[in-house]
């Protein structure tokens, strides 16, 4: 039997090189838990153990629908000896009737007399369904029956009956995939996913203009299902639409100066308020002054939220200037096209934004990440920090 460690769950379990994003089924998010290879190895080991006990007779494998259909199919491919197959389906939540007879939606086949039956279950957790199965098969005239379950939650199983064959002992987490569903969705997934109970994550992306904050935010927001707020983008949107806020910000932005704190803080708060259902935020380009950082902390506290980490993308000034000038050619951003404006933005950064490093270091939240290299390498470096939070 394989035991899955109850250690801090690994988001990258399925393929460490290429993280799989969360999946959404109905209203909930699920993260990768068991890879297809891990599942198939467990199926094979169960099939081999059963074969060792039953290879000299012709057992009947009875799958318990709906969840076990994938397990049964793969189990049979691994079972190399004569056998029969059938399915049963129990009424989900009715349990025993007053007469002590289990209600079934699909009855066991009636030719089981004198045969050995191995019941194939996808998962045993509390043991309620197992109890129904035991009662059901106690009322048949089979030679003997055994229970095989691919997944088993030892933490919550009541232990009333012995389980004869177990594939993987898993922690008490809600899982989907490989036949198991969340409200009928997810049965067709090849891997098993686990309910993502991770609490809200709020990140500050920190770094000089051109460090790649916006580019990285685009990836991280999908990977961790976060709302990306770029104060620069919000200002540019307002300028484009000629709003009062845009007209106010434009004069500062044109010179490469920071927009006054009171304006920016208010705007940021409004953006957060618009997305109260988000499962976390990436703040990109905010805070840029200590006053903004303090205001952000206070504001988040009123919402029972907090900054979990500040991820600083480090890069050399000369590299950044070249990047910004290149970006200016395609984006049309005037503040990216003039080297003197760029240098003024760096000056603003050094004077007003750089002190934030100490502010977040004191809180133990500052993480410096090498911002030079291929985009996906930098995303991976950031992901590694996030995983360890
Ligand atoms: P960005 O797109 O982040 O490079 O921001 C472009 C410009 O928007 C900056 O140079 C500032 O003029 C203004 N801006 C963006 N975020 C802030 C902020 N947090 N505080 C003050 N000004 C900001």
UniProtKB/TrEMBL annotation:
<dbReference type="InterPro" id="IPR005904">
    <property type="entry name" value="Hxn_phspho_trans"/>
</dbReference>
<feature type="binding site">
    <location>
        <begin position="285"/>
        <end position="288"/>
    </location>
    <ligand>
        <name>AMP</name>
    </ligand>
</feature>
<keyword id="KW-0067">ATP-binding</keyword>
<keyword id="KW-0963">Cytoplasm</keyword>
<feature type="binding site">
    <location>
        <position position="231"/>
    </location>
    <ligand>
        <name>AMP</name>
    </ligand>
</feature>
<dbReference type="InterPro" id="IPR033690">
    <property type="entry name" value="Adenylat_kinase_CS"/>
</dbReference>
<dbReference type="Pfam" id="PF00406">
    <property type="entry name" value="ADK"/>
</dbReference>
<comment type="similarity">
    <text>Belongs to the adenylate kinase family.</text>
</comment>
<dbReference type="GO" id="GO:0005524">
    <property type="term" value="F:ATP binding"/>
</dbReference>
<dbReference type="InterPro" id="IPR027417">
    <property type="entry name" value="P-loop_NTPase"/>
</dbReference>
<keyword id="KW-0479">Metal-binding</keyword>
<feature type="binding site">
    <location>
        <position position="236"/>
    </location>
    <ligand>
        <name>AMP</name>
    </ligand>
</feature>
<dbReference type="GO" id="GO:0004422">
    <property type="term" value="F:hypoxanthine phosphoribosyltransferase activity"/>
</dbReference>
<dbReference type="Pfam" id="PF00156">
    <property type="entry name" value="Pribosyltran"/>
</dbReference>
<feature type="binding site">
    <location>
        <position position="373"/>
    </location>
    <ligand>
        <name>ATP</name>
    </ligand>
</feature>
<keyword id="KW-0545">Nucleotide biosynthesis</keyword>
<protein>
    <recommendedName>
        <fullName>Adenylate kinase</fullName>
        <ecNumber>2.7.4.3</ecNumber>
    </recommendedName>
</protein>
<feature type="binding site">
    <location>
        <position position="345"/>
    </location>
    <ligand>
        <name>AMP</name>
    </ligand>
</feature>
<dbReference type="GO" id="GO:0044209">
    <property type="term" value="P:AMP salvage"/>
</dbReference>
<dbReference type="GO" id="GO:0006166">
    <property type="term" value="P:purine ribonucleoside salvage"/>
</dbReference>
<dbReference type="GO" id="GO:0005737">
    <property type="term" value="C:cytoplasm"/>
</dbReference>
<keyword id="KW-0418">Kinase</keyword>
<comment type="subunit">
    <text>Monomer.</text>
</comment>
<dbReference type="InterPro" id="IPR029057">
    <property type="entry name" value="PRTase-like"/>
</dbReference>
<feature type="binding site">
    <location>
        <begin position="210"/>
        <end position="215"/>
    </location>
    <ligand>
        <name>ATP</name>
    </ligand>
</feature>
<keyword id="KW-0808">Transferase</keyword>
<dbReference type="InterPro" id="IPR000836">
    <property type="entry name" value="PRTase_dom"/>
</dbReference>
<keyword id="KW-0460">Magnesium</keyword>
<dbReference type="GO" id="GO:0004017">
    <property type="term" value="F:AMP kinase activity"/>
</dbReference>
<feature type="domain" description="Phosphoribosyltransferase">
    <location>
        <begin position="38"/>
        <end position="182"/>
    </location>
</feature>
<feature type="region of interest" description="NMP">
    <location>
        <begin position="230"/>
        <end position="259"/>
    </location>
</feature>
<feature type="binding site">
    <location>
        <position position="327"/>
    </location>
    <ligand>
        <name>ATP</name>
    </ligand>
</feature>
<dbReference type="GO" id="GO:0046872">
    <property type="term" value="F:metal ion binding"/>
</dbReference>
<keyword id="KW-0547">Nucleotide-binding</keyword>
<feature type="binding site">
    <location>
        <position position="333"/>
    </location>
    <ligand>
        <name>AMP</name>
    </ligand>
</feature>
<comment type="pathway">
    <text>Purine metabolism; AMP biosynthesis via salvage pathway; AMP from ADP: step 1/1.</text>
</comment>
<feature type="binding site">
    <location>
        <position position="292"/>
    </location>
    <ligand>
        <name>AMP</name>
    </ligand>
</feature>
<comment type="function">
    <text>Catalyzes the reversible transfer of the terminal phosphate group between ATP and AMP. Plays an important role in cellular energy homeostasis and in adenine nucleotide metabolism.</text>
</comment>
<feature type="binding site">
    <location>
        <begin position="257"/>
        <end position="259"/>
    </location>
    <ligand>
        <name>AMP</name>
    </ligand>
</feature>
<dbReference type="InterPro" id="IPR000850">
    <property type="entry name" value="Adenylat/UMP-CMP_kin"/>
</dbReference>
